[in-house]
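Summary of Year 1 activities. Much of the first year was spent building the evaluation harness for sequence design. The harness presents a backbone, in tokenized form, and records the residue chosen at every position. We chose the following record to illustrate the format because it has been used consistently in internal testing since the harness was completed.
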């Protein structure tokens, strides 16, 4: 113990060995990191209180958390899911091409729909709160955004709201209030089974909207605005694996620019 107390290298070897032993016992990387963070806070306090001179947890190499790859659907899979979803059909399309969060879609009012410009104004969201039920508030980022929809999706929405008052919900539940997320999720699960898809959630459909937009050539900033991310960095982090490797395009563009400049120079010298 005396050696560990006075030798930082010995302490670090012991901590690293302990981490490796925990990993061997089957603890996940996330659990190891969580335990380390708690211990590190205690040791930092001990240093501040002068119980110990150095934090033996400083510099410990932590395991990397596994980042699960998010699922997204193809256009054809979206169509199959929507066709199997019956009463959810229009909602599946709105989530898959508009990229709304579930609570944002549930909170849409008829007055939020601009059928001429094919835009949805996303200004509110609903959340299930214990003992209170569904509660309406602002969006996650507390910002209002305008979301474009493909013409065929807007046509479905237009049919949905035809003849209804601006203050009515676009997708009302049977009691004319918001559709509970679990009600939607249960029926979505049944539609997935009918269409041969698995583990599809409302967030999967939102992620699909971003993926399909990028695949169609939309910029990261455009997708950021579509999804309502606070920063394009968030969008980059979520969709980095889908962004194309543009080195070949960059090389070709530079070659083209140089040729144009050379040709222009030759033309001027004549």
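For this record, the design step produced the sequence shown next.
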């Amino acid at each position: 113990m005396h050696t560990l107390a006075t030798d930082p290298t010995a302490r670090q070897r012991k901590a690293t060995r302990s981490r490796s032993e925990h990993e061997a016992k089957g603890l996940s990387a996330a659990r190891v990191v969580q335990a380390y963070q708690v211990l590190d806070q205690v040791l930092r306090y001990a240093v501040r209180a002068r119980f110990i001179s150095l934090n033996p947890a400083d510099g410990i190499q932590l395991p990397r958390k596994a980042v699960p790859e998010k699922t997204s659907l193809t256009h054809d899979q979206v169509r199959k899911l929507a066709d199997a979803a019956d009463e959810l059909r229009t909602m599946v399309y709105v989530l898959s091409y508009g990229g709304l969060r579930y609570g944002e879609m549930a909170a849409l009012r008829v007055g939020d729909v601009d059928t001429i410009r094919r835009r949805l104004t996303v200004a509110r969201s609903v959340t299930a709160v214990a003992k209170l039920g569904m509660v309406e508030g602002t969006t996650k980022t507390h910002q209002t955004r305008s979301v474009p929809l493909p013409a065929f999706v807007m046509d479905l929405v237009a049919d949905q709201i035809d003849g209804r008052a601006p203050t009515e919900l676009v997708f009302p539940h049977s009691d004319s209030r918001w559709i509970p997320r679990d009600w939607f999720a249960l029926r979505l699960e049944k539609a997935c089974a009918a269409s041969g898809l698995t583990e599809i959630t409302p967030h999967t459909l939102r992620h699909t909207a971003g993926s399909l937009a990028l695949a169609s050539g939309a910029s990261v900033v455009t997708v950021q605005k579509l999804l309502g991310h606070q920063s394009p960095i968030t969008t980059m982090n979520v969709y980095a694996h889908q962004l194309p490797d543009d080195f070949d395009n960059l090389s070709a563009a530079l070659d083209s620019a140089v040729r144009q400049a050379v040709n222009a120079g030759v033309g001027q010298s004549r």
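The chain has two domains: 2-48, 75-242. Quantitative recovery figures across the full test set are reported in Table 2.
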